[in-house]
Amino acid sequence: MQRPLPTQKLIPLNTNQLNMIKKRESPIEIPADEFKKLGYQLIDSISDFIENVGEGSVTTGETPKQIQTLLGDEFLPENGTSVEELISKTSDLLFNHSLLNGHPKFFGYITSSPTPIGALADLLAAAVNPNVGANILSPMATAIEKQTVKWIAEFIGVSPNYGGILVSGGNMANFTAFLAARTAKAPKSLKTDGLGSISGEMVFYCAETTHTWVEKAAVLFGHGTKAIRWIPTDVDNKMDTTILFQTINEDLKAGKQPFLVIGNAGDVSTGVVDNLSAIASICKDRELWFHIDGAYGIPAAAIPQYKKLFDGIQEADSIALDPHKWLYAPLEAGCTLIKNPQHLLDTYSAHPVYYNFDKNTDEPSHNYYEYGFQNSRGFRALKIWMAFQQVGKSGYIEMINNDIELSKLLFQEAEKHLELEAVTQNLSITTLRYVPSDYSKEGNAGNKYLNELNEKLVNELQQGGKVFLSNAIVSEKYCLRCCIVNFRTSGKDILETIDIIVEEGRKVHDSLQLIL
């Protein structure tokens, strides 16, 4: 006998629920006509900003306290503000109180001028808002990212069969490869029993000039900084591969487990490219993972006359590079390339029961959460994908080569100037220092003063806003460092930069002489 269904007690809907059934009113929605009007106004403002970005200062030099005063130290607002007022106020804060890395005299660190199409692409990506963690959540965005990764591999001259993933920047690109290398070279017990189960310390190798991400990786992933083998550099500032080979052999004899060698394709201080083919040969001989940190410099491998400088990249098991550096993409955009993408899956893939992402067994889904750290992921690829199509490979080769030529021009002009010492020039990085015409001290005492002078000069230039550059220590010399990854920079900017450095250098020298 069938049991009767229990009777449900009907609860009447409240006024709020009734209203939402008709049409939900949300305070954060913007009506289409208003959105269109405000969007046009914002695009006009951004267009004016881009057109005039080189007219004023690179930075205002305002202190954090001054910036906080402008922003106001208010509590979380209880009620809303009109969108028109909010956009106007925010545009003013950002346009007039930021360091402008789109300025043609911005040469600091390695942040490029952002492509205008990249800014539009980010707006478009945000409007659709795909979650590029699983194919089912982002079918078109996933396909575009796969194609973008392939194009990046083709551009730098490795096989388009390399797989990979877009990440936030150089640290994450290198971290992603580091863990893939460890998974590939460690015993299978690593995943279940951890590093403590491995017989012999896992150690890895890099040049003394390698970026600080290496130390972060050693600490965060449980190896400790003692696992890093810092290999000295030779007279050309490249990793000394003879010492590398000797150090690996010593570690093997001592019962260590070498697993990874990192080569630099454009070190962050001077732009030097290691002897990648020699490193590749050593890695092959000792069955080690060969990783290239090309976050800055590896796009230059696309230029025919510099291709030989990058011999050996085809042998890399993994490569890290940042499209937001020398491919001019707006932040954030890093990329990890892996020769055998299965290594990423072995490292990062997981299949919890609440992920219903693989319904089509005939055609396996490409789910990016299985290739890296993130599950939820933004659509970083669109700005790179659109820029590649706007200018093509030839357009990028032209822009990157022009940056290198401008760096050479800066070096040559510094060499000619009686008050400047040109120190190094590699790829698009030039280092130099100001040397007063009346200063003739030799030896350590003289170098100590010049280091103090140039350190103070860097600080003055960064605050002054006429030009923005950074610093490098080269052979115990404190240098001004100019890195040109800027499609807006011209020869005129370079010549003016020489004049600015000399003018400010004289002022700093005079002020230090008064103290002495």
Notes on the protein architecture:
This protein is of the alpha/beta class and 516 residues long. It has a domain at 130-378: Aspartate Aminotransferase, domain 2, CATH 3.40.640.10. It contains 16 helices and 11 strands. The protein has helices at 15-22, 32-51, 64-71, 83-96, 116-128, 139-156, 170-185, 190-193, 213-220, 241-253, 276-286, 323-326, 342-348, 381-416, 443-464, 491-515, and strands at residues 163-167, 202-207, 228-231, 257-264, 289-293, 318-321, 334-338, 420-426, 429-434, 470-474, 477-483. Helix 9 (213-220) links the parallel strand 2 (202-207) and strand 3. Helix 10 (241-253) runs parallel beside helix 11. The chain is globular. The protein starts with 14 loop residues before the first helix and ends with a helix.
Characteristic terms for this protein:
alpha/beta; single chain; globular; 516 residues; Aspartate Aminotransferase, domain 2
